[in-house]
Design brief:
- The chain has 247 residues and is mainly α.
- It has 2 domains: 134 residues, no CATH class; 90 residues, no CATH class.
- The chain contains 9 helices and 2 strands.
- Strands 1-2 form a two-stranded antiparallel sheet.
- Helix 4 runs antiparallel to helix 6.
- The longest helix is centred in the middle third of the chain and has 29 residues.
Length: 247
């Protein structure tokens, strides 16, 4: 089974467990429901559709993060690779400046079964020596420098991930963005504002966390602070294409 298939299997298994909390989550939403001008009854099917989509994204993100190499290991591997390529490029540069470069070129031509040079007739009927594979060989040698530059850039970008990761609004339990997604599902399903205080919406978020295997985490106080922070962030940074579910 491929890694992608393993991830999908894990997500499907978690969604089956999530299904066991369907009734509890829908009760929270139906109790908070405010009848609108057109729909007079709480739409369980639509509400559950939104919730399973959010849960699927939640479980997928968790599986991808679990499969990803830790940041410190990625930095260490990239640094080792950049150093090795730097040393290799230095050795090759020295070799190309002396007889070792000629020997390397000769061995490479033998490896690809091509002559090092061939006699050609010039336009004036004189004879000359051409080395067609030489340009290809030079490009291959130059490619080492390109790989070194790529490794150094990848190392810099990976090291900068920590510095440019953005606002730490989420936790290991509930990553950034999911409170907003749950607020949108809550507003769509209930017609009620997801208020950042003790009430239906925090209970709904808590129910989602319970359903995704994080019962009791984070603390109630921390959860309310996260909701308030997300609400403030959305209001300070409007999307421009969709209204805020908090307003």
């Amino acid at each position: 089974m491929t890694s992608g298939a393993l991830v999908q299997a894990a997500v499907d298994n978690n969604l089956k467990k999530f299904e066991e909390h369907k009734q509890a989550l829908l009760i929270i939403l139906s109790n908070a429901y405010i009848p609108g001008p057109t729909a007079q009854r709480f739409d369980e099917m639509q509400a559950w559709f939104h919730l399973t989509n959010i849960a699927g994204s939640f479980f997928l993100g968790a599986q991808v993060k679990q499969a990803m190499m830790p940041w410190s290991d990625r930095v260490a591997r990239l640094r080792s690779l950049a150093n090795a390529l730097r040393d290799a490029r230095s050795l090759i540069d020295r070799a190309m400046d002396d007889d070792i470069g000629d020997e390397l070129y000769s061995a490479w031509c033998n490896e690809i079964d091509q002559p090092q040079a061939e006699v050609i007739r010039n336009e004036n009927n004189s004879f000359g020596l051409a080395r067609p594979p030489l340009e290809i060989f030079k490009k291959i040698v130059a490619g080492v420098s390109g790989l070194e530059a790529a490794a150094v850039r990848a190392l810099d970008e990976t090291q900068n991930e920590r510095a440019t990761a953005g606002r730490p609004t989420g936790t290991a339990v509930l990553p950034p963005g999911f409170i907003l997604a749950l607020a949108s599902a809550y507003r769509t399903g209930t017609n009620a504002r997801p208020l950042a205080r003790n009430g239906p919406f925090p209970r709904f978020v808590r129910g989602f966390l319970d359903a995704t295997g994080h019962k009791g985490r984070p603390s109630e106080r921390h959860l309310l602070e996260m909701i308030e922070a997300e609400c403030a962030h959305v209001r300070a940074n409007p999307s421009g294409w969709a209204p805020s579910p908090f307003d």
